[in-house]
From TrEMBL:
Taxonomic lineage of the native organism: Bacteria, Bacillati, Actinomycetota, Actinomycetes, Mycobacteriales
Keyword Magnesium: yes
Domain MoaB/Mog: 186-327
Named cofactor requirement(s): Mg(2+)
Matching NCBIfam families: Glp_gephyrin, molyb_syn
Reactions that this protein is recorded to catalyse: adenylyl-molybdopterin + molybdate = Mo-molybdopterin + AMP + H(+)
Keyword Lipoprotein found: no
Record protein name field: Molybdopterin molybdenumtransferase
Length: 415
């Protein structure tokens, strides 16, 4: 049997390096940038007001007090977005709004609350305003370049774009951005017993769940996933669907039909071609396959054939596909791994690396010995989707381990 590490290496070789595309910044959520984003101008690009109030020369109101306010004529009204300002003459003030450019000559802003000015909507702007205190020069001014200097690297290459990063690129005036391309992945589920959710079920049939599950896992991993409606266990039909699916796919993932049964459509259809079917020393997820499918145009499309048992399918995705898939999109390949304390005794099959479903404290708070506690959940059978759905961790038990008592330290992948 092939080891997990060997199969991981072979699957990872199906993926190429990240490819670059330009996309609209607004569409780049979750994608990794390819280049440093360099600020073409300073941010803020001009000195501007941090408050709604009055722009002044600080010297003009020095010594103002509640008992002896200083009154200045209001010579201008400056909303955000105003262009073409004139210099503020000594002994005058201008009404100014948050974000509005500071006129030359002004060196401070006094918030409206510290004046007798009235900013209410239907109020006719005052021709003079009284200041009941002085102000320090520089107060309430957002200086040009105080966020980013011109030429600074605003975001280094390789940054995964979240909301704040998309905001920053937009603020820098960028409409599009070079990012690592999302891979287009088609999921093809096989099995004549499968019925589409929402339709009536007969005894002996089950609802198809791997397609939606793997598509969701792919989307979560950052790929563009598409589920091709499951195909019956018919080789010709399967190959036809595979050809159709390959046309616009970077990767095909199948589920089911790869073990030792009499209706193993995936294996039958692909065994003679450049797809290798192997047993991997792991539980769940023993029967695996991977290689290439030649599409009708002769293009080699990587294909990974996952076992049909739902738990095996998703655990195999986690172990073999998610890391290289994400690396091929410039994203961090690995989920967090932690050393945790086992909450209960466990057994594990000899010679197989086991990925047990487990629950770690959602707050990720350490237990008494300073480590997280992981509680194994559910039996080992690969049909126990319920326990997979209840788990937030995979406990990675080495192939050489057959039993561990509660309190042992184990390696845990936090999902
Ligand atoms: N004689 C042997 N039998 C089996 C072996 C073996 O080595 N020798 N391996 C077992 C292991 S381990 C696994 S895992 C499964 C893998 O089987 P297949 O990949 O061929 O999958 P199927 O037989 O098509 O289905 C297995 C199981 O999963 C259900 N299934 C399949 N597809 C879906 C789907 N899209 N949604 C929901 N459920 C699905 C299917 O109904 C079966 O119950 O083989 C063991 N047998
Ligand atoms: O290896 Mo299978 O995936 O145990 O059920």
């Amino acid at each position: 049997m092939r080891s997990v590490a060997e199969h991981q290496k072979i699957v990872s070789e199906l993926f190429g390096p990240p490819e670059t595309v330009r996309v609209a910044v607004a569409d780049a959520l979750g994608m990794a940038t390819v280049d440093d984003a360099v600020a073409a101008f300073a941010m803020p690009a001009f000195d501007n007001s941090a408050m709604d109030g009055y722009a002044v020369r600080a010297d003009d109101i020095a010594g103002a007090s509640a008992a002896e306010p200083v009154r200045l004529p209001v010579v201008d009204d400056i909303p955000a977005g105003r262009t073409g300002l004139v210099t503020l003459a000594p002994g005058t003030t201008a009404r100014i709004m948050t974000g509005a450019p500071l006129p030359d000559g002004a060196d401070a802003v006094v918030p409206v609350e510290l004046t007798d000015g009235d900013f209410s909507v239907d109020h006719v702007p005052d021709s003079t305003v009284g200041f009941s205190s002085g102000v320090e020069a520089g107060k309430h001014i957002r200086r040009e370049g105080s966020d980013i200097a011109r030429g600074d690297v605003a975001l280094p290459a390789g940054t995964v774009l979240g909301a704040a990063q998309i905001g920053l690129l937009s603020a820098l005036g960028l409409a599009d951005v070079a990012v690592a391309r999302r891979l287009r992945v088609v999921v093809l589920s096989t099995g004549s017993e499968l019925v589409e959710p929402g339709k009536p079920l007969q005894h002996g049939q089950i609802y198809e769940s791997n397609g939606a599950m793997l598509t969701a896992a792919l989307t979560e991993a950052g790929a563009l996933a598409r589920h091709v409606h499951f195909v019956p266990d018919d080789v010709a039909d399967f190959l036809e669907r595979l050809d159709e699916a390959s046309a616009d796919a970077d990767l095909i993932i199948t589920s089911g039909g790869v073990s030792a049964g009499a209706y193993e459509v995936v294996k039958e259809a692909l065994d003679a071609g450049p797809v290798e079917f192997v047993k991997v020393a792991m539980q769940p997820g023993m029967p695996q396959g991977c290689g290439h499918h030649l599409d009708p145009a002769g293009r080699r499309v990587p294909i990974i054939t996952l076992p049909g048992n739902p738990v095996s399918s998703l655990v195999s995705f986690e172990v073999f596909i998610r890391p290289p898939l994400r690396a091929a999109m410039g994203l961090s390949p690995d989920r967090p791994r932690v050393a945790a304390t086992l909450g209960s005794d466990i057994r594990s099959p000899e010679g197989k690396r086991q990925f047990m479903r487990g629950v770690v404290d959602e707050s990720l708070l350490p237990g008494v010995d300073g480590r997280l506690v992981v509680e194994p959940i559910g039996p080992p059978g690969s049909h126990h989707l319920r326990y997979l759905a209840g788990a937030n961790a995979l406990i990675d038990i080495p192939a050489t381990t057959t039993a561990l008592p509660a309190g042992s330290v184990v390696n845990v992948v936090v999902l």
